[in-house]
Amino acid sequence: MDAYSILNAVQCLETDAVLATILSVNGHSYRKAGAMMVFSLNGCKLGSISPGCLEADLQERIDAVNGSGKSEIISYNMQSEEDPVWGESIGCGGAIRVLLEPIDREFRKFLSEALARMNSGRSVHLVRTIYAESIQYSIHPQGDVFMTKALTSTSQETDPAGGAETMRSDWVPKSRLLLFGGGNDAQAICRIAQAIDFQVIVADWRVLPDAETRYPGAQLVSGTGRMITRQLGIGCDDYLIICSHHLQRDREMLEQALPLRPKYIGVLGSQSRISKLFEGFAVTANVYAPVGLAIGADGPEEIAVSVAAELVSVRARARNECRRGVRLDEDCGVILGGWSEPKNGGGEAAARAVAGHYTRE
């Protein structure tokens, strides 16, 4: 679960709970610094911070942390020589520090504020200043997030003089994925995209029968490409997959989407069909045609796996670019989009796109 899902779940809890956050990692770890999970006092667990080797030990500490009302930092040494201590031959190879925080009234107030900002489409910069006996919290607006080096991750600093440790977490809203076309391919992609924390919208030029049953949890929209893009306000942070299997409708959506420069435009279909779709259009670097990683996928479920892997790759690369301070162009497209730079500029890029021969890093 991502930060948004964790925060949303916390608001629904009716019992006391403790938030576990990976504070730092030295060496290998299953999850990175900033990963979170929630332990409720009734035994319910949300999210994960390890393959399962730490959760049982953390669960034993939850009552004490909640009862004391004080946070606690737990250190785990997962080096292979420590395996006899655990008795499970874990051998993860890293040292991990986990912060346990009782979700009291004050902390819940900050988490609620963070969620409200994310619900409005803004990123959140939460700062914890960790002292020996207490933690102070502060929230910074979206503009501050993009001035930091870390995005959707956690960094920490220690003040030698005051003995305080600062933990900075930058949280972003769920990325929106628009699936244009309500066929079997979209149904399979919808399921797996929701599992990897995309907010899915299914759109079609028709009103789809049984759509709420076929696409549970997805937002449903119908209309022309122009109507859909305007209604949803598609922009440079969004992801789009064109998969209606109707050539003219797909061209109409493509014509509307290309100038908006969403982060990702995936197009489902054969290379010959893609050539017809892009005829007369300038192909930008955010286009993935044909959609999905080349893993020899066959059928809706396997195609959905290849598409999900590509979505994860594009999303991670975008976050890393923001983390490194890479600037985006004025149209919000990532410069070169991670592909090798075409020798002959845009003309060669277009030719390779419609042929499905982009070389990705």
TrEMBL record:
XdhC- CoxI domain ranges (all copies): 16-76
InterPro entries in UniProt: MoCofactor_Util/Proc, XdhC_CoxI, XdhC_Rossmann_dom
Domain XdhC Rossmann: 177-311
Name the UniProt record assigns to this protein: XdhC family protein
Protein species of origin: Paenibacillus solisilvae
